Inverse folding.
């Protein structure tokens, strides 16, 4: 029996070691506070797949979250949350983007100790750099031309001093800082 590309891709999502984590990051009403409350009641998120709907509700999960968890258990690739997670997974495969989860040994230690650390990081480039000291430059998405130039020049100067400039790649100041960090002049001298 031949499988469609969509079926094959979804099956790969279900079989991938990172697929479940991508799915968790897409769950509705499953933010940092809810995640922490769940981990206070069960030892790991995989156990969510072993509980029935009533138990999941008793754990404090919303109906939409429970529905998505049950769809994952059925491997229902048509469910919107699973389709979204599968799209992210396929994009990572297509672009060569590494998937780093909180369960991975090289997940950045500082992120493990903040109250809303992400379950998943999407990494392009040398992921070992995540262990270095970093600085983030953030600001408005609708910055003035002068603000964008300041962000670019600050990031270049900080990079020249050997600091790793971290960016979420948002538009505006974040993106300008990222661009500045990539400028050849921002590389530290040997």
């Amino acid at each position: 029996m031949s499988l469609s590309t969509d079926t094959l891709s979804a099956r790969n999502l279900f079989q991938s070691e990172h697929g479940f984590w991508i799915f968790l990051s897409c769950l509705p009403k499953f933010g940092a506070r809810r995640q922490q409350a769940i981990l206070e009641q069960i030892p790991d998120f995989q156990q969510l797949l072993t509980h029935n709907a009533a138990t999941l509700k008793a754990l404090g999960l919303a109906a939409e979250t429970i529905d998505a968890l049950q769809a994952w258990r059925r491997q229902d690739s048509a469910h919107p949350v699973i389709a979204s997670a599968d799209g992210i997974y396929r994009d990572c495969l297509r672009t060569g983007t590494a998937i780093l989860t909180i369960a991975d040994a090289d997940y950045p230690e500082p992120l493990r100790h903040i109250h809303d650390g992400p379950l998943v990081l999407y990494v392009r480039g040398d992921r070992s750099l995540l262990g270095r000291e970093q600085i983030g430059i953030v600001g408005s998405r609708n910055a003035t031309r002068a603000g964008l130039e300041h962000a670019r020049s600050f990031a270049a100067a900080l990079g020249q001093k050997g600091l790793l400039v971290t960016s979420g790649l948002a538009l505006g100041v974040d993106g300008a800082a990222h661009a500045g960090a990539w400028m050849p002049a921002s590389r530290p001298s040997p």
